[in-house]
């Protein structure tokens, strides 16, 4: 691993949450239960799970002595990480069952961005610079493809 990875302790929803993120971002999901690892706790609880792909997240179900996710003052930033259309799709999917803090839209400083807290409590900052949107438009026009 070459960069920090977010590791989330979920309140018994790790399987559901990591499966949701795999549905949003794609990638390879591996889930391991307490029974798989021979560790204590409920046998079906997730002891360790990893989503590996364009977005990498890891997590587990919080144990009795651990606190589950409560994100304050932290956002997971996806600024410029994909084409604008894909970023809008991710924003919409993360918004489903969550709460839009700031709509993904053009801002006064020229970029487009927005914030959403998803149904599992993670706070996302998603956006792009206008040059990214222009580059996509130029590339499609250069290929004889035009949006209607």
TrEMBL record:
UniProt superkingdom: Bacteria
Residue ranges of domain Glyoxalase/fosfomycin resistance/dioxygenase in the record: 8-124
Gene3D superfamilies named among the record's database cross-references: 2,3-Dihydroxybiphenyl 1,2-Dioxygenase, domain 1 (3.10.180.10)
Name listed for the protein in its UniProt record: VOC family protein
SUPFAM superfamilies on file: Glyoxalase/Bleomycin resistance protein/Dihydroxybiphenyl dioxygenase
